[in-house]
Amino acid sequence: MDNSKYLKLFSDCIPVKGASRSCIYDLGRNTYQLIPNALYELLVTDEGKKISDIIEQHDNHPVIIEYLEFLLTSEFIYLCDKKELKRFPKLTHKYLSPDHITNAILIRDQKSNFDFKTIINQLEELGCKHIQLIITEDINIEILKSLIDHTNKSILQAIDVTIPWKNNDDIQNIIELNKQNKRLKRVYFYNADHNEIINKEELDILILKNSKEDIITNSSPDPSYFRVNMTLFNESLGYNSFFNRKLIIDEKDNIKRTLDQKDTKIFGNITSTKIKEIINDEGFRKYWNVNKDSIKTCKDCEFRHMCVDTRTPIHENQEWHYEKKCSYDPYTNTWTN
Ligand code: SF4
Asked: What is the pLDDT along the chain (337 residues), one digit of tens a residue?
């Protein structure tokens, strides 16, 4: 390490402080690295300083040299000359999207009346690129295929499907379906007799013992669902990364803003209401701006810009919080399950 050089953090490596430890979000490589809070402090207070000055300021403590070497070999920082420092400005983290709705959850059972094709057309008009289709009853693979076929030629980029588990034939059926429609990215089988994750090129199949409710409602975040990327990071700074620009149509064809059974607010029925008629309704947008930085406990969590959870926040005593505790405790850094 050349001690005459100056410390510069790569602009796509963002340190995020938690209550008991911190995290570097590597938005270029879509990964993260947990770090002690002392290293976070070094990154935010000593960036732009000369390496020799940083070491001296910390009384030549061997841990500081170790930290710097770790940051350098992990390519979170680089060393440059003083005059080069200003040539590498920070990234601006504005979330900008021309889309009115970015993602939709469509819940369907045998009694649902909604016309899938009409909904896809309406969502497409509003810019929606991602849908999650939740099937609450056992359905024939041909019915699932015919639903997904309605997305052919649409602007949709990704379809996730949540469906009850029957047997091993399901796996092959889904792989065949994915060959015909590459938008199918992730399939969750619930109520299975075992847990298994199968990754096939661009398709993830998750066979889970969990109930449907565990997967879709009020479930506490699972670290295997954490995603580190620039869009999610930027969105999470200003918005709730689950609720922002989300639309839900339940099995009774009602348009809703959450998956929470206790949230009885309905914004019309898709058989008679056009989605574009309700997207500016303030009540429909109630949770869009409730970012994790404004929610009790989450605001102290180092995972808050990669964690997307479906729980509905509650506003009480001038503070947002969740009724059900998260399985992660950012004060002790422990998971309970
Ligand atoms: S505390 Fe909040 S941000 Fe952290 S893992 Fe739990 S829900 Fe996510």
From this structure: 899 999 999 999 999 999 999 999 999 999 999 999 999 999 999 999 999 999 999 999 999 999 999 999 999 999 999 999 988 888 999 998 899 999 999 998 877 877 888 999 999 999 999 999 998 877 778 788 888 888 888 889 999 999 999 888 889 989 988 988 899 999 999 999 998 989 888 899 989 888 887 777 656 677 877 999 999 999 999 999 999 999 999 989 999 999 888 899 999 999 999 999 999 999 999 999 999 999 999 999 999 999 998 899 999 999 999 998 899 999 999 998 6
Please give the single-letter amino acid code of residue 107: I
Nearest-CA residue for atom 2 of ligand 1: 298
Angle at 127 between CA 124 and CA 129, to 5 degrees: 80
Total-model pTM: 0.89
16 lines ligand 1 (CB under 6 A): no
d(CA 171, CA 318): 48
How much distance in Å is there from the Cα of 301 to the middle of ligand 1?
6
Residue 307 CB–ligand 1 contact under 6 Å: yes
Phi, psi angles (nearest 5°) of residue 171: -60, -50
Is the CB of residue 255 less than 8 Å from the CB of residue 270?
Answer: yes
List phi, psi (to 5°) of 207: -100, 120
Q: What's the 16 CA to ligand 1 centre distance in angstroms?
A: 13
User: Residues, the chain, total?
Assistant: 337
Q: Which of 104, 113, 167, 106 is nearest to 141 (CA)?
A: 167
Centroid of ligand 1 to alpha carbon of 18 (angstroms):
11
Residue 270: closest CA among 287, 252, 285: 252
**90-120: burial string, b at 16+ Cβ within 10 Å, e else:** eeeeebeeeebbbbbbbbbeeebebebeebb
Nearest to 176 by CA among 144, 131, 153, 206: 144
